[in-house]
Amino acid sequence: MCQCGTCGDDFNSRSDCDDHMDTFDHWVECETCTRQFRTQRSCNQHMDALNHREFVFGCQTCNCIFPSRAAADQHMKHKRHYKYYCSQCERRFLSDNRLRQHLKSKFHVGTDVSCPFCNAPFVTASGVTSHLEYGTCPKADNWNRETIRQMIQGIDPTGLVTNQQIGGHNDESERYYATESALDGTTWVCYICQRRFITRAALNTHVNSSIHKQKIYHCPNTRCCDKEFALLSALFIHLEHETCGYARFENVPNVYRQLLDAILNDKVVTGL
């Protein structure tokens, strides 16, 4: 009996096995020279004897190289040499962005931002603001996207974070519904952004979301950032990502508290 070292099939003779390996290219090749072997074991013996291994798997932190991904992973795990690694939690991440998001999570930052009404804990200013904007606080029935907009504009006459709104109507109470003209064959099309939806209900949800609402807020970093937002929580997300450098992530809750204090105490905001 003879066995193919690649797929494990058994053959009655070596010639039959060789024919199979030739047909399906199941020979095991040396990583350096052109020698071929019937099994990985015999190939490994050859490469070890002649130093023919191609060390292509490197450590993400140091200069060590390894003959296999498994060996490299074992080294990095033992030495904690992963490039995107949280040593406190002993967790690895696939990208720098995911690691940074982890370091900004409740596992490291805590939940020191709380709702002023129901005391629900949140990790970020954007989280508690979204909680209020979407009317999910059980003890703040009159707080939603529109009432918050009115309150913020009331305490921000100089436009630190708000734009002059076109028209003075309440757009929170307005609902838009797709007509038959939005149906393009088998899909429903948003006339503003041309996105397609399978159902009319999905399109209605889309057009009444914050995506196409008037951009009421702007980044306070007016010197080098022109970002505008339909939601206050979206503004906080922008600041938390530190994309324009206006505030450090850990300082964004202070901006939230300043605005909240001005709203609750009916004070004008003069600076952030």
Structure, explained:
- The protein has 272 residues and is of the alpha+beta class.
- It has 3 domains: 2-50; 57-104, Double Stranded RNA Binding Domain (2-Layer Sandwich); 117-165 and 174-264, no CATH class.
- It is 33% helix and 11% strand.
- It contains 9 helices and 15 strands.
- The protein has helices spanning 14-23, 40-50, 69-79, 96-103, 125-133, 145-155, 200-207, 232-240, 252-264, and strands at residues 2-3, 10-11, 28-29, 36-37, 57-58, 65-66, 85-86, 91-92, 113-114, 121-122, 183-184, 187-189, 196-197, 217-218, 228-229.
- It is elongated, with a radius of gyration of 30 Å.
- The termini are far apart.
- The model has no long low-confidence stretch (mean pLDDT 80).
Blueprint of the fold:
Blueprint: E1 2-3, E2 10-11, H1 14-23, E3 28-29, E4 36-37, H2 40-50, E5 57-58, E6 65-66, H3 69-79, E7 85-86, E8 91-92, H4 96-103, E9 113-114, E10 121-122, H5 125-133, H6 145-155, E11 183-184, E12 187-189, E13 196-197, H7 200-207, E14 217-218, E15 228-229, H8 232-240, H9 252-264
Antiparallel strand pairs: 1-2, 3-4, 5-6, 7-8, 9-10, 11-12, 12-13, 14-15
Helix pairs in contact: 5-8
